[in-house]
Amino acid sequence: MSSSSPSPELVIRSIEPADVDPILLINEANVPEVGSVDADRMAFIVEESPIALVAEIDAAVVGFCLVLSHDSTYDSVNYRWFTQRYDEFMYLDRVAVDASCRGRGVGRSLYAEVDRRMALIDGADHLALEVNVDPPNEGSLAFHARLGFIEVGQQDTPYGIRVSMQLRPTSRP
Ligand SMILES: CC(C)(COP(=O)(O)OP(=O)(O)OC[C@H]1O[C@@H](n2cnc3c(N)ncnc32)[C@H](O)[C@@H]1OP(=O)(O)O)[C@@H](O)C(=O)NCCC(=O)NCCS
Questions:
Q1: Count of C-beta atoms within a 10 Å radius of residue 31
Q2: pLDDT tens digits for range 140-162
Q3: Which residue among 25, 75, 99, 103 has its CA within the 20 to 30 Å range from the CA of 61?
Q4: Atom of ligand 1 nearest to the CA of 139
Q5: Which pLDDT tens digit goes with each residue over 72-103?
Q6: 103 C-alpha to center of ligand 1: Å?
Q7: Is the CB of 143 within 6 Å of ligand 1?
Q8: Any residues with CB less than 8 A from the CB of 153 and at least 6 apart, and which?
């Protein structure tokens, strides 16, 4: 008789203070696809994010995403690009999934929960974000295209990377 272990359970939930250390580790393992931050900066972005999620598999944090409103004081040049052009949006500042857990629907599940929560917020009509195009982040470009994001512009950043600015409408029931 063969034995089998239970399927790993994926849980998407709101970030709690104890998650800042594990998400920092995942963040820093994924620079430059996401921007490098220290603990204070990460805590600030989490605080500024009405939607701040972690993905857990078997109770271990394996991914996260942070989504700001359109009226944050956040000083990112990419966030500012959207505030100068759009009113009704939320901005996904960063998403990362641990390399050992990619390609298993974790990113898709995080975005589905973001979409569910945005549908409850008046005026949260589009999710905005940027993806590196030079040098390219091929995996993220494919992921975001698959999830229905459309390029609405590009910009060169002061940190030497050209980025694609993308939007996706919120699904409202
Ligand atoms: C981008 C990222 C968040 C995707 O997360 P993930 O959990 O691996 O993605 P999923 O498994 O949920 O994939 C969702 C869909 O995107 C597609 N996709 C994901 N990664 C892909 C890749 N590298 N190449 C092609 N397609 C990809 C999948 O095929 C899947 O499509 P399907 O559901 O129709 O089969 C993850 O690769 C990551 O953390 N990358 C490093 C950090 C990063 O680049 N962040 C984004 C900065 S803009």
A1: 11
A2: 999 999 999 999 999 999 999 99
A3: 75
A4: 23
A5: 999 999 999 999 999 999 999 999 999 999 99
A6: 6
A7: yes
A8: 81, 85, 164, 165
